[in-house]
């Protein structure tokens, strides 16, 4: 958490700084991320020195299915799931707009949602 999944050296707390400064890894070749995680999420992120790999996996024309497993801290209502199914508005920054501080609003694509309710009692 707290690491930005970008290789842009101008962005603080970027993933390359994380692996080089905090973990002592010094790659011989340029490193690319395969996908990304939001700054406040956690999970597995793949790194590669083959710049073709992220494009071959992530470009929309290749139509690969992406599966996300998400844990939330409250019970979801059917209307919450319907919003996800239809697509939700998000705020994001393109690389060129980041320097100008201009945020973009975009709607995510509709998706399939399966809800698996698991109750965990905490003490």
UniProtKB/TrEMBL annotation:
Organism listed in the record: Craspedostauros australis
Family according to the record: Belongs to the pseudouridine synthase RsuA family.
Name this polypeptide is given: Pseudouridine synthase RsuA/RluA-like domain-containing protein
Signal peptide: none
Keywords: Isomerase
Taxonomic lineage from the root: Eukaryota, Sar, Stramenopiles, Ochrophyta, Bacillariophyta
SUPFAM superfamilies cross-referenced by the UniProt entry: Pseudouridine synthase (SSF55120)
PROSITE patterns: PSI_RSU (PS01149)
Residue span, Pseudouridine synthase RsuA/RluA-like domain: 20-90
Keyword field contains Oxidoreductase: no
UniProt superkingdom: Eukaryota
GO biological process: pseudouridine synthesis; rRNA processing
Pfam families reported in the protein's UniProt record: PseudoU_synth_2
One of the record's GO molecular function terms: pseudouridine synthase activity
